[in-house]
């Protein structure tokens, strides 16, 4: 070796030998890996970054073949926790009659309740009765509801519903599902909101975007079609809970179980929830529990 040259020390990483160095895993992760290796993955279940469970929470095992997401005990526990979280929630759309609620619900499509609540007080001051709406053309209504989006279709639906209610139902919003479904712009979701929130009739479960997403995350359904989701929920939730359950899930969807980044670490349903897109988990993740 020429004078003055000092041989290089081997790098600690071993990169000169193309050898990777494995970093020691934290003890919790190492234990989890050993456990997974020993048991193998259950079908449809891929355990994912299980953080240490907070004190007082027991890590339930759901990898067994006997796990049933719609078992009555599990559903009852979800309902119990929702009752604790949201004991007396109601519809967030401002209204003082069945007609006002119907209009507000039609206007809320592809919009937010807050946005609709900004529009409706002035709207109902200007047109205080169903008859006043029935006397309008859709074009006359449009400027009043423009800020809620899709205002041309919404105007047609509101004016059309008002005309039909005046012509066929004596100016009164009907309190039956079949009759409500004859009104322009009214499908099961809107009809269920009016029946449940105003008439206190549990004819079905409201399936909006929040109920759709969270019912799937909680594995209360595997369906994607709102009508089928509603059927699934009606089978497993007691009828006397249908109205409140929808409100609770809608509030949960706004506050914690938001679409893109659910706040799982703050959610008291967390150790019952195995959703694939959880942001934090103390339990196994189920790949089929997707939003
Ligand atoms: S744990 Fe997360 S994904 Fe599950 S219900 Fe709560 S917020 Fe939603």
What are the SSEs and their pairings?
Elements: H1 27-39, H2 72-85, H3 98-107, H4 113-126, H5 130-134, H6 138-145, H7 151-168, H8 177-180, H9 188-198, H10 209-217, H11 226-236, H12 242-255
Iron/sulfur cluster (SF4) binds next to loops.
How would you describe this structure to a colleague?
With 291 residues, the protein is mostly helical. The protein has helices spanning 27-39, 72-85, 98-107, 113-126, 130-134, 138-145, 151-168, 177-180, 188-198, 209-217, 226-236, 242-255. Helix 2 crosses helix 12, helix 6 (138-145) crosses helix 7 and helix 10 crosses helix 12 (242-255). The termini are far apart. Residues 4-25 and 32-61 have low confidence and may be disordered. It binds iron/sulfur cluster. Iron/sulfur cluster binds at residues 217-218, 256-257, 262-264, 267, 269-270, 273, 275, 278. Iron/sulfur cluster is lined by residues 217-218, 256-257, 262-264, 267, 269-270, 273, 275, 278.
Distance between termini?
A: 66 Å
Nearest-angstrom radius of gyration?
27 Å
Query: Which oligomerization state do the chains in this entry correspond to?
Result: single chain
Mean pLDDT across every amino acid position: 85
State the helicity in percent bands.
40-55%
Small-molecule binders here are: iron/sulfur cluster
Q: What proportion strand?
A: under 5%
Summarize, please.
This protein has 291 residues and is mainly α.
Keywords:
291 residues, binds iron/sulfur cluster, mainly alpha
